[in-house]
Amino acid sequence: MNPLKAIMQQAVSGMQLESRRITVAAENISNADTPGYQKKMLLIEPQLSASSQFSAMKEMLDETPGQRDYNPSHPMADQDGYVTMSNVSLVMEMADLREANRTYEANLNAFQQARSMYSSLLDILRR
After folding, report:
1. What is the DSSP string of 49-72?
2. Could you say which of 5, 59, 61, 82 would form a disulfide bridge with 38 (CB–CB 3.0 to 4.6 Å)?
3. What is the mean pLDDT of residues 91-101?
4. Per-residue pLDDT tens for 41-89?
5. DSSP string of 19-40?
6. Taking the mean position of all CA atoms in its chain, how far away is CA 76?
7. Under 8 Å between Cβ of 13 and 119
């Protein structure tokens, strides 16, 4: 297999993964104040093959219970008057979002470098 093509495929695979991580983090952040919302987590299973792409990205729910607040007038309150809030930590989600964004940019730079090298190789071969 062409090594430059393999580098570009790996970078695209990484960008797809990081794009999904950004989406999951954004969904968690947007629902941080929703009572009863459970944090989504992305489970990644690598595929051991020549292309080394990620074969599966599954979303799972974090089963950690959220904080319980006493508010008997809330429509989602249980019989004891407690409302279970979401289990999303905004600090952790913002850190994950920032990491995913920077990793996406690193994969994009790797793709652009490989494309530039491929273009330079084609220019040399044309001479």
Report:
1. SSS--EEEEEEEE--PPPPEEE-T
2. 61
3. 95
4. 998 877 666 555 566 678 899 999 889 999 999 888 889 999 999 999 9
5. HHHHHHHHHHHHTTTSTT---E
6. 30
7. no
Does an H or E element contain 110, and which? Answer: helix 90-126
Element holding 44 (H helix, E strand): strand 40-46
| Token code pair at residue 90 | 């905004």
The backbone torsions φ and ψ at residue 60, rounded to the nearest 5 degrees and listed phi first, read -125, 155
Q: ∠ at Cα 75 (73, 79), nearest 5°?
A: 75
| Strand (E) or helix (H) holding 84 | strand 82-84
One-letter amino acid at 72 equals: P
